[in-house]
Amino acid sequence: MSDIEIREAAFDDVPAMARIRYAAFPWFIASVAQQELWWRTARPEARLLRLLALRDGEPVGFSAGGFNITTSEPGAAYVETVVHPDHRGSGAGTAVYQRLEEHLRAIGARRVRAFAGDDAASVRWAQAQGYTQGAHDRYARLDTAQLPPMPALPAGVTVCSLAEAGPKTVYDLDQAASIDEPGDMSFDGIPYDLWLARYWESPDQQLDVGTVVMVDGVAACGTFLEANRELGKGISTGTFTLREYRGRGLAKIAKAAALRKAAERGIHTAITCNDYTNAPMIAVNDWLGYQPFASEYSYLKTLGA
User: What DSSP character marks residue 205?
Assistant: First the structure.
């Protein structure tokens, strides 16, 4: 077995990192351009480090991590470690992760969150690094040619695209409605300029497909859909309803409308992800016809006080 070389990743490594992600995750569809945007929009205060693992000069895995800047929890951090399936068991994941954890300790990270598949090997690996299993997420997909009838719009309810609603309206709705999303770390908001650059101006964001539901002129519910047009696949990256408008079927309207527009634009497969405790959203997605096909767990580790 050849030795593993670890070096800091460069922007030119993004396509190689993308190939590793595509091979590792059946739900991962973000375009290379999208992943390059993630790199360019990383904030200095996140203290992000990206490390690449190579065997015989070939990138086979990577680890990236830094502070989670969307939560107010002191010292909250995240790490992503991915190894190409053909190279698992080679020690690449452990080698690159341990170097990354040294970085997290050095910058003062306290509690770290990671994600891993629910297969036995991934579970064992995460636990071997000292992580405790947390929230459980479900991935599901559907054929956009097989949708149920569009729900009738109640009196006073209209729909429009994200583009028609405009960025500030969508941002305000997204921030207000996403505060209590299930998970192991609180979401306490994202600055408007970062949200604009990373989400609204994303090359994968489908501003003419994503939908906002208006109730008597109030933006009450919305849904994002990002798509890799080369693959013909899209993924819901958030569906959010203001608390006072929940329980009215607005999320069902938003997603049904968005998926119809996606089908018209050649997006044949739609993917979504939900925390298993989010029963109302899972019920909406089951009604739409989503079928579960994969899942993952979050993993948590405390590094110090």
Answer: B
Q: What pLDDT shows up at residue 202?
A: 97
pTM above 0.90, yes or no: yes
Encoded amino acid at 112, one letter: V
Q: Give the whole-angstrom CA distance, residue 30 versus residue 117.
A: 18
At which residue do the structure tokens 């527009």 appear?
A: 261
* pLDDT confidence of residue 2: 58
Predicted pLDDT of residue 94: 95
Taking Cα atoms as reference points, which of 249, 195, 253 lies closest to residue 223?
A: 253
Strand locations in 27-183 (E)? 49-55, 58-67, 76-83, 111-117, 132-143, 157-161
Q: Answer whether 137's CB lies under 8 Å from 245's CB.
A: no
Give the closest residue to 234 by CA, choosing from 215, 207, 216. 207
Q: pLDDT value at position 305?
A: 59
pLDDT at 283: 97
79-90 as b/e: b if 16+ CB within 10 A: bbbbbbeebbeb
Could you tell me the domains of the chain?
4-109 (3.40.630.30), 141-293 (3.40.630.30)
Intervals of the chain under pLDDT 50? 1
- The phi, psi pair for 224, rounded to 5°, reads -95, 150
Q: State the sign of the Cα–Cα–Cα–Cα dihedral 36, 38, 44, 48.
A: negative
Start-to-end CA span in the chain (Å): 39
Q: What is the C-alpha separation between 78 and 97, in angstroms, rounded? A: 12
